[in-house]
Design a protein that fits this description.
Blueprint (H helix, E strand, L loop, with lengths): L9 E10 L2 E11 L4 E5 L6 H8 L7 E6 L2 E2 L3 E2 L2 E2 L5 H8 L2 E4 L11 H11 L5 H14 L15 H13 L5 E5 L7 H16 L4 E4 L3 H7 L2 E6 L2 E6 L1 H6 L4 H10 L1
Parallel strand pairs: 3-10, 3-11, 8-9, 9-10
Antiparallel strand pairs: 1-2, 1-4, 4-5, 6-7, 11-12
Helix pairs in contact: 3-4, 3-5, 4-5, 5-6
Bound molecules: adenosine-5'-diphosphate and magnesium ion.
The site of adenosine-5'-diphosphate has 11 residues, from strand 2 and helix 1.
Subcellular location: Cell membrane
Protein name: Amino acid ABC transporter ATP-binding protein
Main location: membrane
Length: 258
């Protein structure tokens, strides 16, 4: 029997990040395997968005590194200088990470179809006709085939977020990061966005999702990571973290959101 050893999709190793004297990430370790769905829970200000931004190389850690599929994208570890990647290499790796934001961040002057097709063309992944074809397929997948000619302002928040998910998929990312993807939505629009994310989870896409939707987390997560004060307090399968939390801080947080 041969055992295939695959590198982790994402590995965050001992990441420290601070702004001035304010320590926002205080030694975070996180390993996400290909196809795994990780939900990050934690109070406001605990460093969840910063962690996603470090993974996406929008922020550089002061200490620690991040690797994607075994390729290092971080910089330093305990003062030791690791080889810095070129801007080009960083951009290449970032293009393999999808990022879905709370506020959709669609291009307002582009149609829905062009929003989805733009990045694969800009990064040279596809020519325009192929990108448009892919965009049509992806809009079908998020249930918006009939909206391709619309502009973002003509869509509901839930529809805009589904376009943002299709846009993230267009780069065929190795992992998609979601930062509170339903927090800006009216309650009646949350379900349609969660349904699309659930569909991605079931299809084996590697996902890291920051959310306060506990019921959704329970359903979709392979693993829940509870973060507080810039540290991972505890992690494990949803049933362990949600029903049998080991730490007082986790219990306090859950008692507020459940
Ligand atoms: P969360 O997403 O868990 O709410 P964040 O990662 O956004 O937390 O922020 C963690 C802490 O870092 C907060 O106290 C926030 O004010 C601070 N912070 C985040 N970004 C910056 C920044 N660019 N400059 C200074 N402080 C920041
Ligand atoms: Mg945040």
């Amino acid at each position: 029997m041969t055992t295939e050893i695959r590198p982790a999709a994402v590995e965050v190793h001992d990441v420290h990040k601070w702004y001035g004297a304010h320590r926002v990430l205080d030694g975070v370790d996180l390993t996400v395997q290909p196809g795994e769905v990780t939900v990050i829970l934690g109070p406001s200000g605990s460093g969840k968005s910063t962690l996603l931004r470090v993974i996406n190389h929008l922020e550089k850690p002061e200490i620690g590194y991040v690797s994607l599929n075994g390729e290092l994208i971080g910089v330093r570890r305990h003062g030791e200088r690791l080889k810095e990647l070129s801007e080009r290499a960083i951009l290449a790796q970032r293009s393999r990470i999808g990022f879905v934001f709370q506020n959709f961040n669609l291009f307002p002057h582009l149609t829905v179809l062009d929003n989805v097709a733009a990045a694969p063309v800009a990064t040279g992944l596809l020519r325009k006709p192929e990108a448009l074809e892919l965009a049509r397929t992806l809009l079908g997948r998020v249930g918006l085939a009939d909206k391709s000619g619309a502009y973002p302002r003509q869509l509901s928040g839930g529809q805009q977020q589904r376009v943002a998910i299709a846009r993230a998929l267009a780069l065929r990312p190795g992992v998609i990061l979601f930062d509170e993807p339903t927090s800006a939505l009216d309650p009646e629009l949350v379900g349609e966005v969660l349904a699309v994310i659930k569909d991605l989870a079931r299809s084996g896409t590697t996902l890291i999702i920051v959310t306060h939707e506990i019921g959704f987390a329970r359903e979709v997560a392979d693993r829940i990571v509870f973060v507080d004060g810039g540290r991972v307090v505890e992690e494990g399968p949803p049933a362990d973290i949600l029903d049998r939390p080991q730490h007082q801080r986790t219990r306090e947080f859950l008692s507020k959101v459940l």
